[in-house]
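Hey, can you fold this one?
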Amino acid sequence: MASPAIALAFLPLVVTLLIRYRYYFVLFYRAVLVRVWKDCVTGLRREERAFQYVLTHATPGDPDSILDAFDAWCSEVEFISNIGPKKGKILDRLLSEQSPLTVLELGAHCGYSTVRMARALPLGARLYSVEMDQSNAAIAEKVIRLAGFDDDTVELIVCPSDEVIPRLQSDFGLDKLDFVFMDHWKKCYLPDLQMLEDSGLLGKGSMILADNVLFPGAPNFLRHVRRCGLYEWRVHRATLEYIKGIRDGMAELVYQGIK
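Sure. Predicted structure:
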């Protein structure tokens, strides 16, 4: 009779943990378990399934329709880590205020944030979007073109960010970046930011927006930003895209130069 008694003693703790971390269990279910199951059943990657949904539910040439289809799929069908509509509005506002002409995106994934930024850019602006995964880049390319953006507006670069950044001046003719959006591997945030600092591509007023700095988190990146003295900065607090109850945030950095 000892075993049932011990189990009963731990029951309140188990219930407490389930309640406290329920949103994380939901995230694990939607992002991992559902993905693995549907990968096996469909024979398609999650990103391919997302594109098929967008292709059948969105209007070609209409960026808003494509974003809405993505949001519906991510909210109701499967989880995928886009910036999402809530944090996306912060991105929209900053782009509207900055009106950048040269934009760098690190981490295109399926092209959601690429389309979101491209639709908000002023006439004559250009977005350079970097994605290291060739399969994801192929999906992103289809999404970007489906939204109606050509190579003159969006150039997709399929290569790791640490190989692209040192070549932005020599291979792509860039002399300054007005806006940088980071949404790739969080461990790359700090080294990529330092490469940008050393490259001379950041001028006074250049803005960097980094997603998911609180969850999954980029502590080394934030520590550097706090200590280096090169930026005016703040964190826009929000929740994780498509999952309520998990706190997240985006770091907004405005480059001030060496003091």
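The first strand starts at residue 102 and ends at 106. Let me know if you want another pass with a different chain boundary.
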